[in-house]
Predict the 3D structure of the following.
Amino acid sequence: MYPLPMDRGASTRTRELHWVVRGGTARMADGAPVPIDVDPVVVGRDPNAQIVVADPEVSAMHCELRATNKGIALHDLGSTNGTFVGSLRVSEALVTARTEVVIGRATLVIEPSGASRKVDVGYSDRFGPLVGRSPRMRRVFSVLERIAPTPLGVLLLGETGTGKELAAKAIHEASPRKGKPFVVVDCGSIPAALAESLLFGHEKGSFTGATERRAGALLEADGGTLFLDELGELPVDLQPKLLRALSERQVRRVGASAFEPIDVRVVAATRRNLSVEMNEGRFRSDLFFRIAQVKVELPALREREQDIPALVEDVCGRAGRAEHAAAVVAWIEQRMASHDWPGNVRELVNVASVAVTLVDQPGAIDDVLTLSREQLDSPRQAVSAFADAKRTAVTAFEREYFTNLAASAHGNVSEMARQAGMERHHVRAYLRKYGIERG
């Protein structure tokens, strides 16, 4: 879906990077046409959808359309009653000719234009700590650069380990709110009984255990940015209260009678499909559209493998061993060519970190991270032993890596998270897993 950039200039200074996309229009039968571009066009019953269908058989967020280099991509958003082309129910489809799609009792007409259009990819190969030279990442950086200085709410999408918290912090640092608080709330770990207090604060004596007056995350982030990690895990009963606070720009602490003004920009992240959550009533669409004024998806590493050398160079540079980057890249390309990187960039950073640390010790990287040469030379043995060998190697690597990390950071979890490029709660989980003392 993401072609190589086209070079339209003769010099580096005038070079422009582009995608070529093929868009078109979409309309309900007898309705006005809506252009389809690289940004998704959402079709659904919700009034915030780009194409609104007032049909009870249509889900709030039913399907979406976007232009790609091969045609118009049609994607069902977990609708209840399905998206149909003829008699076929489809979840994903590529439309290359005029097509009628049935949703509920309505007909959606999709008409590719037949003409291609060039979309600017962007020049930057990094944004804050994020690194990537692929067209897809350059496009992401271009969008982040444009939206960072604005007050718009941002929803970051992507699998675990793709760098959503790093992107959120980079947005904050590139905004006028730099220097103001950047407050992180992990919605997946909020205790139900304390959720309202953690977000809005409380007065002394407002509930058992409230021994002093405290500000919640919204007040702590006043003037700065509130990062809501794993937004899809936010308790349902808290969602309307958060929406009201963001809309009215004021909060009332638990047990208080007066409201306090706030000036907060919200950046959120999720790895869940919030369209499905909204269709099933577990997430409010009005809160979604209030926060997700801009949606940015961070691709999985397996979808941007051409960025691996740049990412490894960055890891080696931060470790003060830039001269070994080529050797580490060569080792990864040789030993992990078929690896699909389920842990994404976070996993690559960990692998590259141990590899550059051990690069001066012949054979040490193999001993820690992968099979021995004898296993690689024996296909039959490698097939039967790979899972156990990989599990043993990863366990050894994780234990050694986090033991050394705890020592170098003197037990400071925030510093450990910064050095590892991980979220703090993930660092704590590894410390607990291997019984590593912070001191």
About this structure: The mean pLDDT is 85. Residues 379-408 form the longest helix (30 residues). Residues 151 and 242 are 18 Å apart (CA to CA). The first strand starts at residue 18 and ends at 28.
